[in-house]
Prior knowledge:
about 350 residues, Enolase-like, domain 1, globular, about 35% helix, single chain
Amino acid sequence: MTNDYRFEFRPYQRRFLRSLTTNHGNWNIREGIILRLTDESGKLGWGEIAPISWFGSETLEQALDFCRQLPREITDEIIFSIPDELPACQFGFESAWESELFSMPNDASSLKSAKPPTRLAPPCPMPHTQSYSALLPAGEAALNQWETLWQHGYRTFKWKIGVDAIADELKIFELLIHTLPAFTKLRLDANGGLSYEEANLWLWTCDNLKVNGELALEIEFIEQPLPVEQFQQMLELSTSYETAIALDESVATLGQLAACHQQGWRGIFVIKPGIVGSPSRLRKFCQQHKIDAVFSSVFETAIARLAALKLAAELSQNNRAIGFGIDHFFEQEETWFESLWNDL
Length: 344
């Protein structure tokens, strides 16, 4: 039986409190689309399309074009036939379809005032910030911010590399590892921005990391050291050093994820649910292959974050901290959601 849903959407823009700097450049405004499905009984389901085109998803304009061409009434068939070229749309529509529908009186005035939830508690087994990895700012700013995040309970951090000259970053890294408390876990994320020689130097440095003769903190992995097209070199490096490598940009979508696994990658996969594609197909792949996955944010709102955290709770295999410690990059969401939906 096919179900019918009233479909509505709203584009959004959220300004970062501080510019996010990666090898891909500076990111100042997060743009996306909030979806709302209403079934025949008046129940609501919320979804979000949060593309990152430079990471491998469709563009925001492609997602908007897709939403604009849809009829006001859509069906299950439409939701599950979104093409693979629109992975963020697949995630947004399917997660809206999967979401626990919030019961609402079936009248126009009540539906008009209905807004998406803005305080969404992560599902078990991730009840507190020790289960999250907090993103540090690139460069020297990391030296000044980790302590605040530590006080908020974070014990795993991710720091962007491949942004400045490697000599400068290695100096900051030396300061950072001597500053962070023992038993901290640190992830280094290059966003594909290192040369082969630089990747070797970083991996060698991490393998030989000692403080007073002992390893004071754990370098959990280096994330996407080389560009996507250098998969074989990353596969080679993964067997040459003790420090683990995680694929990120190389496995941005389900198609890429399956291709890298088929080509022999058995290391860590960083999965960004918001742009990977269909949640149901992701479940099937992860359950079939039992991959070592780290689930990570795409700087989505609470809408997509809830759907992503449910997937992470369901599919995480090795008790790794999830990469959703990014709240400090945005203002509180309540006021922002109010202004987005007050004219619906």
